[in-house]
Design goal:
By secondary structure, this protein is of the alpha+beta class. It has helices at about 5-15, 35-50, 65-75, 105-115; strands at about 25-30, 60-65, 85-90, 90-100. It has a single domain (about 25-115), classed as 2-Layer Sandwich (Chloramphenicol Acetyltransferase), CATH 3.30.559. The chain is built from 4 helices and 4 strands; from the N terminus they run αβαβαββα.
């Protein structure tokens, strides 16, 4: 994974004209070991079920060579059924969510929740 800060990556996506499909928040992590993709899919779907603002599952999870390149090539329409997308390359996990429903701070919480699922209803902030 390129260790360039998230902010620089976001700015590199903002170089062109405003496009609703590109207005996203990112959350990424380098895991200590490669996760089981079936368990990861289940955890992602559980997070979306717990947070209805993210839409309805299943969460699109793509297994790729480079999470940043794959995410940069993706489209994230604000009217998609699910507003959370995931990319996995070995131990690197990148979550992308439309900014209409989340922000960078919340993405950190979503990453944590995917890795350690909570029980019960989501907090009502």
């Amino acid at each position: 994974m390129n260790d360039q800060p998230f902010g620089q990556r976001i700015l590199s996506w903002a170089g062109g004209p405003a496009d609703a499909d590109r207005f996203v928040a990112l959350g990424g992590i380098r895991l200590p070991a490669e996760p089981d993709s079936a368990a990861l899919r289940q955890a992602l779907d559980a997070v979306v079920a717990r947070h209805p603002v993210l839409g309805e599952g299943p969460v699109p999870l793509r297994i790729v060579e480079d999470v940043w390149s794959a995410a940069a090539a993706g489209r994230y329409p604000p009217d998609a059924r699910c507003l959370l997308w995931a990319y996995l390359a070995g131990t690197e996990l990148l979550l992308v969510a439309h900014h209409n429903v989340t922000d960078p701070w919340s993405m950190r919480l979503l990453v944590r929740e995917v890795l350690k699922p909570g029980n019960g209803p989501a907090p009502s902030y």
